[in-house]
Design brief:
There is one protein chain. With 135 residues, the protein is mainly beta. The chain is 0% helix and 54% strand. The chain has no helices and 12 strands. The chain has strands at 5-8, 18-25, 32-37, 46-53, 58-65, 68-69, 73-74, 85-92, 96-101, 104-110, 120-125, 127-134. Strands 1, 3, 4, 5, 6, 7 and 11 form a 7-stranded antiparallel β-sheet that branches. It has a 5-stranded antiparallel β-sheet with strand order 10-9-8-2-12, with no helix packed on it. Strand 4 (46-53) and strand 5 (58-65) form a beta hairpin. The chain is globular.
């Protein structure tokens, strides 16, 4: 799959929606990202910004509302390694996104914007994508 990758989610990312992302982190990777966007424009609000930063050994979670980023949340440790494959589940629950990496819950991100507003998914950065599936 070509990166950056973008696809629409016409019904939004409401509770019960699950996204599977399977890929490989580039061997020289610094960062990659998964964004859930409210529209396709450059000024889109971002319901979820998921940003593994291998150069900082952290994963940042955030939202962009009315042109301003909220406060960053960071997961504990980093479950991604350069040159390694990964399987990630992003699950929309009633209260927030549950992020599962390699069958282990990694982080819960409480909604700051209604998840139903997320109608585009964008994946980019230092990653090779093998699968993005939303159901």
């Amino acid at each position: 799959m070509k990166v950056p990758y973008k696809t629409s989610v016409p019904d939004g990312f409401g509770a019960g929606t699950v996204m599977i992302v399977r890929g490989v982190v580039h061997t020289g990777a610094d960062r990659f990202y998964i964004n859930l966007l409210c529209n396709d424009g450059p000024d889109s609000e971002t319901v979820l910004h998921f940003n593994p930063r291998l150069d900082e050994s952290s994963v940042v979670f955030n939202s962009l509302e009315c042109g301003a980023w909220g406060s960053e949340e960071r997961g504990l440790g980093i479950p991604f390694q350069r040159g390694q494959s990964f399987d990630l589940l992003l699950i929309a629950s009633r209260k927030g996104f549950k992020v599962v990496v390699e069958d282990s819950v990694y982080h819960d991100f409480v909604y700051r914007l209604p998840p139903e507003r997320a109608v585009f998914v964008e994946v980019g950065g230092d990653v090779q994508l093998d699968l993005v599936k939303i159901f």
